[in-house]
Every structure is written in structure tokens, then in C-alpha cells.
Amino acid sequence: MTNDRKSSIERYSSAYTLSDMEIFIFPELFYALVLANIMSPEIWKWREDPWFAKMENKSFTYRINRVKQFIMDNFVFNLDLDTWGLTTKERELERFSKIMDMEILRQSNALFGYEGDKYYFDIDIRRHFGLDKYTDSIIPYWKTETVEAMSAFRYKDGYTTGAGECVSLSSLYAAAMFIVGRIPLEKIFLIATPLHSQSFITERDGILTNNRRIVTKTMWYNGTELSEKARRAIANEKITIVSHLSGYIHFMYPQATIDRQEYDRMETSLRAFLTTEFTFEVFINFLRTKNEFWDCFQYRHRRHNKECYIDLRTIFSYEHSSKNKFASESRKLLFEEVDARDFAVSPKEGKIIINDFEDYLNRNPQLSFDEKKEYFILHIMSERCSRMRTMFEEMRDFIRTEPRLPSVDKEFSSFPPLQINTSQSREEILFHINEMSSQNEFAELAQYAYRRMTGVPWAPFVKAAIERNPVCVEGLTGKSLDDIHALLSTLPDESIYSGDDRMALPDEVWNFGRGDGAEKAFVMAACLYAATPTATFTIRIDSGSAVFETSGKQYSFATAKSLRIHLMVENGNTITI
Question: What confidence score (pLDDT) does residue 30 get?
Fold first, then answer.
């Protein structure tokens, strides 16, 4: 990353708004959000929940499942156009014109023409996300939420729990697995593709998070709808960013800061996770996802001491409503659920008896995929199943996914690493991150993402607040400043961010219907700036009062923040008085 980009006010202000595009352009923001969540008291409170009692003495599997269930119970996936509002392609391109060109953006961002995942391309990406009612220029902000913003969704109409989009959930998982699951950060990697973000944990066979859920290696190959959704991003898209405690690597930038050995270790673990053997169970799991091949197979079953036959399609229909599975030890119980009328006394012509597959695979586990394939095609398949070669090519893809990771043809550099471990307290970690903020770019940007306003310049926050909070502006359009002040004064004086020096953005105040007086003053600033970008205004926070002033008129709010600042904004430029 060039020095110009490192010092850019867009970079620092993006640490507050954290849109998907901002994280793509400034990949160091991805891990800064993880650190901000670790700094926050919110996830540390989870340790006190009875659900996590004596976690430090539990097995790895127990711990990750406890964290997963807690997240599933307390958060839902949210990706709508209303929460964080809309922007335009032109506005975003102008913001980043010195950093990014349109061609690279087309290769990497679905809203700028990316077509990497055929599924989304086929359904029309804009229609899928509800953008078809707008011009092609309109795109969503899709801001990534801090843990505080995720938790605050419970205050929003239509929600009873917290919520967040995929980047938010992958960052939440990384912090929660560390704080509550006691998994070292060195084992947790964040993986971003153009349409999705996940976390990968390099423990045992590997664990992949997928929105609110987790996916084990066994689950990756179980042929369920959940695993197919989890597969979609890595199977169909290039990986744009891998982020880790030691640094990041981005497919586009020639420099990388991630520790090369850590990256190699992650790649080895991920490739092992994405590769399995051609066994009968895996073969059935594959067929479960490919209904176009179901009618090629039948199963020979011994019932009441007589041989009978049943279609694979019928078997899968029973599986759908049963806890028992055909390719597992519960097969006998599954067939006890099958109606006698679904069995035939003779095999159907043109259908392959799948028992022959099972017998051969069980007898020859040492053979390669190609050896097994050729045997089946030569000795078991008939001409009436002409699609079998196609089936085996798709099966090859099923048992081995090739991740399109960022190339290691980079200039690797590093910054002094953070020394954070699971035995430290929150206070010790906070102190260390603060101490390292002048040496480690993740630690530096975490100060902004954490929303602590002491010790950082105000200009990035002001820029983010007045330029990139369209939802409160739309909600208050047409109202005078007097009306806006009166309406904001009726909202609870309660910040979603604990502490007396942390600040919510205007859209967070508006979305969640609450805010400290200092935060409400910036809602007024955002509305004035949207209506009159050349307007001059001041904000003064001191001694329990937050005052917004423009054109000689003052609007005052009570504040519990201990911040002391006097700002003047002219033509969108911030001056500290």
C-alpha cells in the first residue's frame, strides 16, 4: 500500500463506516474490525452467561458449538437496502479514483459487473438484491457492523435479536472464538470473496464459518442445502482478501503484510479441508446434490429374506423427512420407514444397481479417483447411462475444491506483530493494542473502528458522519432544523456504545432510535450538509452539553460523554478550534 493511501483521510474515515467496498479497497480494515470487537466489552460479557460456564475446561468441539449456537440464537443475517442506505457508482468511483480503476472493480465487485459466481449471474445480481427498481447507477452501502451495532438491531422494528451481514458475522465469529472459545488468533483467518466473507480456523480438520453457522469438513461433503450454500463462494469465486493477526494479502495489491509462513500454513490447511476421498458415503452425498443423476440408480435391498429394488430418487425422498441417512449406519432404520409399495421385486432396466458401487469402493479404498472412475465406466456402467462421464467430472469437483487464493507473487513486508493471547484480560489487550497503535496498522485503525474519540483526530469521523449516513437524511428530509432538533430530543439519551469517549454515527442513532446528545448533534450536521454542502456549522461538546450551531442559531443536547471538542466545518472541511 502506498504512503498516499496509508495517510488518506478516506482510509481513516472508512474505519468508521466500514462498507464492503471500503474494506475491499483498504483491506487492513477487515482485521481492524476484529480487534475493535475484541476491545469492546460486549463479547467479554458473554463469558458471564451460564451458556458458557466452565468453557476453558471443555473440548474444542464443545467450545465451537457453544459459540455457534449462541450466535444463532442471538443474531440473524441481514442484508437489505434500507438499513445503511444507498450510494451511487459515480460517487464511489470519484472517492477512490486515485486508488482503484473501473476494470479491477468489475473483476471483483458484483454491483460493478462482477460475474464470477454463475448462480448470482444467472438470477441477475441487481434483481436478487432488490436494486432492479433503481437506475443502474444506484448501489447499496452495505456497511459492516461493529458488535455494538449488530446487538442494537434489537431496537429496530421487525427485529427481536441482533443482526448483521456476512462481513460483520465473520468478524464477530473471529472475536467470539478468541474471547469465549479460547481459540488463539493465530489459528483464525478471515477470507473474503467478492460476494461473501467467512472465517477459517486451522484447528484439526478445519472449521469454516458461514454467516451464523459453522461448517466442519464432514459437513462440507454431506450434500445438504446448508453445505451447498457454504460451498458457493469458495467454489465459484476468487478469494480477494485473506486477513490474519500477522497481516493481510489482497489479490490486487503487489504488497502483502501477512506472515508468509502463516499464509502457507493456512493454504495447506484449507486445501486439506477442501479435499476428501472418493468413498461410498461421499458419493451418495454428492448424488444428493445432483438430482439429474438420480434416475440412473436403484438399490438392491433384502427385505423379509427376499431381494427387492428401490429407486435412488425414492430413497432420497424418504431421507428428506427422516433423521436417518442411506449412506450411514442408520440405513437399516431408514428402510424400516419405507412403505412396502415403494419396493419392486425385479430390477428396472437401464438403472445401475448402486450396491456394485458400494462393494467396489469399500474393497478398494487405496485406488485413485481416476482408477475408480475408469473401473465403473468399463465394468458397471451401461450405454444407457451416457451421462456418467459428466457425473464423474462433477464428482471430481465435489471432492476437491480448488481455492483461488491470492498469489504469493507479492512483495511481503511486515509490521511489528501484536502479542495477544487467550490468557490475557480485556484490559491487558486494550493496553497492548493502544501501545502498538503507532507501530501496527491494525492496532492504529482499530482505534477508529472501536469509535474511541480520545487520541485520534476528529476530521475522519466528521467526514464519515456528514457524507456517508444517508438513512437519517432520508428519514428527516423536508424537516427544518427546529423540527429535527425537537424530534431527536424525544429519542432516549442512550448511546449504543459504552464508555464516555465512544461515538455512534448518525445512521446508527437513527436506525436504533437512541443516542447520546453528542451523537444527535452529528445527525443534525449530516442533515444540514446533505441539504447545503457549502454550509458552515460548529459543534461544541463540553461539560455535559453538546451544541450544534449554524447561521447564528444554536441547538443544544445533554451529553454523558466526557469529550471536550470545538469543531467548525466549512464546505465539508473540518477545523478544530
Answer: 98
Q: By C-alpha distance, which of 77, 227, 82 is closest to 165?
A: 77
Considering Cα of 182, then 188, then 194, then 195, what sign does the dihedral take?
Answer: negative
Enter the C-alpha cell of residue 55. 468453557
Determine phi and psi for 120, rounding to 5 degrees.
-70, -35
DSSP string of 344-377, one letter each residue:
BSSPPTT-EETHHHHHHHHH-TTS-HHHHHHHII
Q: Are strands 75-77 and 162-164 parallel, antiparallel or unpaired?
A: parallel
Residues in the chain: 577
Q: Report how far apart, in Å, the C-alpha atoms of 352 and of each of 185, 247, 367 are.
A: 49, 52, 22
Instruction: List C-alpha distances in Å: 8 to 20, 27, 96, 138.
Output: 18, 14, 10, 25
The helix or strand, by DSSP H or E, that contains position 60, with its residue range, turns out to be helix 60-74
Q: Would you state the pLDDT for residue 386?
A: 67
Q: Is the per-residue pLDDT at 402 higher than 90?
A: yes
Residue with cell 448518525: 506
The helix (H) or strand (E) run that includes residue 308 is strand 306-311
108: confidence class by pLDDT, cuts 50, 70, 90: low
Cα separation values, 138 from 88, 392, 525, Å: 5, 43, 24
Helix axes 28-39 and 441-449, enclosed angle (nearest 10): 60
Nearest-angstrom CA–CA distance, 178 and 421: 8
Give 408-421 pLDDT, tens digit per residue: 999 999 899 999 99
Contact call for residues 44 and 426 (beta carbons, < 8 A): yes
Average pLDDT, the chain: 92
pLDDT at residue 132 above 80? Answer: no
**What are 182's three cell numbers?**
479460547
Give one DSSP letter per residue of 139-152, joined into a string: EE--BPPPHHHHHH
Strands (E), 4-102: 75-77, 86-88
Question: What is the spatial distance between Cα 177 and Cα 206, in angstroms, rounded to a whole number?
Answer: 13
- The span from the first CA to the last CA of the chain, in angstroms, equals 33
In sequence order, the 6+-apart residues with CB closer than 8 A to the CB of 147 are: 37, 40, 42, 43, 172, 175
Neighbours of 199 (CB within 10 A): 24
Residue 232, pLDDT score: 86
User: How much is the pLDDT for 554?
Assistant: 97
